[in-house]
Amino acid sequence: MLQNILFSYLCVHSLLYSELQTILKGTPFSQAIMTLVNDPTTQRSACTALDALLEILHDVIDQYLQLIMERLAGLLDSAPLSVKAVVTGAMGSAAHASKDKFLPYFQPTMGRLQHFLVLTGEGEETELRGITMDAIGTFAEAVGKYIFRPYFPDMMKQAFQGIEMGSARLRECSFLFFGVMAKVFGEEFAPYLPSVVPPLLASFRQAEHGEEEELTRAFILPTA
């Protein structure tokens, strides 16, 4: 009964932060949400709700981070592609919420996610690859450039390959990733500009009104 109530409650987008804090103080919370995550009939919706919840768990994330990451990591091995996409997005939200507390989970999570960046199929594979690129960008912001630096060249390579695949979704994810890398690495990103700017400008010429502004905002380089 508690699981059903919690599941319905988490799916309501108008939750107030004070209400969420009340829920999180209850000891059954972690058991209830993880029961829903583990159930194949509810895990996709539960992970979607968890993803939204993680966005505002900054103050209490450390109480649940280990449990959440362990369960989500397990789903990456066993769940269907559509669920893996939601799980990957939730991991990105966990990194965003936990900041430097995400560091112990960074390398193991990268090891689990990197092979998603070589997916070449359409539909669910494209979606999973794009969400993975987004999540890895969030990881970089969470752990900082010194920790992320060993992954930087290869992740840039994967982003460039995403542009070449002809998918508007992957192209957008690559440009957003470039913007994040420029913010994280600052001047160290400069050597990539000759390779990044031409496809960015080409996309501007093809983009509909409004998308251009989004890409521009994503790629604003930090100023000193």
SSE map:
Elements: H1 2-10, H2 17-24, H3 28-38, H4 43-54, H5 61-78, H6 81-98, H7 103-113, H8 124-143, H9 145-148, H10 152-164, H11 168-185, H12 193-206, H13 211-218
Helix pairs in contact: 1-3, 3-4, 3-5, 4-6, 5-6, 5-7, 6-8, 7-8, 8-11, 10-11
How far apart, in Å, are the first and last alpha carbons?
54 Å
Tell me the series of helices and strands, N- to C-terminal: HHHHHHHHHHHHH
Helix share, percent = over 70%
General form = globular
Main sheet attributes: strand count, strand direction, barrel closure: none
* Strand percent estimate: under 5%
The average pLDDT score comes to 82
Number of strands: 0
Q: What Rg do the Cα atoms give?
A: 18 Å
What class do helices, strands and sheet pairing give?
Answer: mainly alpha
Instruction: Quickly count the helices.
Output: 13
Low-pLDDT ranges: 11-21
Structure characterization notes:
The chain has 224 residues and is mainly alpha-helical. The protein has a domain at 1-107. It has 13 helices and no strands. Helix 5 packs antiparallel against helix 6 (81-98).
Structure keywords:
single chain; 224 residues; mainly alpha; 73% helix
In short:
The protein is mainly α and 224 residues long.
